[in-house]
Design brief:
The chain is an alpha/beta fold and 218 residues long. Helix content is 40%, strand content 20%. The chain contains eight helices and seven strands, in the order αααβαβαβαβαβαββ. Helix 5 links the parallel strand 2 and strand 3. Helix 3 runs parallel beside helix 4 and helix 6 runs parallel beside helix 7. The longest helix is centred in the C-terminal third of the chain and has 15 residues.
Length: 218
């Protein structure tokens, strides 16, 4: 299994996985089917990231979650497995093809009753939601240039002490000044500055997978 983090060598990643909760057949099969899609499989989150998110949902006692960018469903599987009975996860994505894979694995895992999937542009769906605090946890892993807009729409919809998790904020280290290679790197630099200065949240950027930012709603 190739590490998602540029900070991990393959052998260290293998050790990490060997000394954590083992993946089950549903997770392994979903990783394998996604890998078979080719280069696009890089959009899938790291397995250790998924395990962390499941545990975080449990530790928070989260009952309501939302994710922007579902792809083949590994992150939704991770979040939904941490929810209590009656907990809900709203998934936003634009692809019927990719999320059809997700639906099959949610069914296999027995978590589909927790999940509502809405297909369409995420910003349109977000703006149609009531602008009131409704979510304990949010996960952003979609169109990178839209990250500031996603956060702006999520902010009023997060409960106090709710957490927004943002993926790929390190971009393989290319967010470090002087290492930028394209506009995507510079856009992520700008988002990271924006998140760190947002007085609505406490902000922590962690070197997990390709970088995760955690924003706690004040």
């Amino acid at each position: 299994m190739t590490p998602k983090s540029f900070l991990l060598t393959a052998d260290v990643h293998d050790y990490l996985m060997d000394n954590s909760e083992p993946l089950d057949d549903v997770q392994r099969d979903l990783i394998a089917e996604t890998t078979a899609l080719g280069d696009i499989a890089s959009m899938q989150i790291a397995p250790e990231q998924g395990a962390f998110m499941t545990m975080l949902v449990q530790l928070m006692g989260a009952t309501s979650a939302i994710e922007i960018g579902t792809f083949t469903g590994y992150s939704a599987l991770a979040i939904s497995r941490g929810l209590p009975p009656g907990g809900t996860l709203l998934c936003l994505d634009i692809s019927e093809e990719w999320t059809e894979i997700a639906r099959r694995y949610w069914h296999r895992a027995g978590v589909e009753e927790h999940i509502e999937l809405r297909i369409g542009p995420a910003l349109d769906t977000l703006r149609a939601l009531p602008p009131t605090p409704a979510y304990d946890l949010a996960f952003i892993d979609a169109d990178k240039p839209e990250y500031p807009a996603y956060l702006e729409e999520l902010a009023p919809r997060m409960r106090t002490n709710g957490v927004v998790i943002v993926d790929n904020v390190l971009r393989d280290g290319r967010v470090v000044p002087g290492r930028e290679t394209d506009d995507g790197d510079r856009q992520m630099q700008a988002f990271n500055r924006l998140a760190a200065s947002d007085q609505r949240f406490d902000t922590l950027l962690m070197p997990l997978a390709d970088g995760l930012t955690f924003l706690r709603k004040r």
